[in-house]
Amino acid sequence: MATLLAHIQIKPGKEAKWESIMRDMVAQTFGTEEGVIRYEYWKGQEPLIYYCLLSFRDKWAFYHHQMSDHHEGHDFADVLAGIRLEYVDPVEGAGGGLPHTADPALPDDADEAMKTAQERFPLDIPAWWSARA
């Protein structure tokens, strides 16, 4: 399973365009992807700051999402000032029923899209998580 919290900063004046893209992304993601569990966007308290909670059945479903036509088809460069993806893991008994984030090895027969996604979005699982499972 792969769960992430995206910390997003939008360029000034691009809020409406960003929110339109996000509505389309959520609709397309839930309409075409089988491995999505949660995919939610929120506005932060600070101007131009947004957050996204993404949770997928496994990292392959996350990589499929990242490499999908609907994800690749938007002009994110026009609206994004910055983004930081943070992998997160649920606290046992307090994580909304989400399974733990895991980083299985890339299969030998992985296609080019999965290899590219692995390079762009490697999972970073801190060692201290295993002691808190």
What CATH architecture do you see? Answer: 2-Layer Sandwich
> Strand tally, please?
4
- Total number of distinct structural domains: 1
How many distinct helices?
A: 5
In spatial order, strands of the major sheet run 2-3-1-4
> Helix share of residues?
25-40%
Averaged pLDDT: 91
Can you offer a commentary on this structure?
- By secondary structure, the chain is α+β, with helices and mostly antiparallel strands.
- 33% of the residues lie in helices and 25% in strands.
- The chain has five helices and four strands; from the N terminus they run E-H-E-E-H-H-H-E-H.
- It has a four-stranded antiparallel beta sheet.
- Strand 2 (36-43) and strand 3 form a beta hairpin.
- Helix 2 crosses helix 5.
- Pfam families: ABM.
Helix and strand topology:
Layout: E1 2-10, H1 15-32, E2 36-43, E3 49-56, H2 59-67, H3 69-72, H4 76-79, E4 80-87, H5 112-120
Antiparallel strand pairs: 1-3, 1-4, 2-3
Helix pairs in contact: 2-5
Key phrases:
alpha+beta, Alpha-Beta Plaits, globular, 4-stranded antiparallel β-sheet, 133 residues
Write a concise synopsis of the structure shown:
The protein has 133 residues and is an alpha+beta fold. Helix content is 33%, strand content 25%. The protein has a single domain (2-132), classed as Alpha-Beta Plaits.
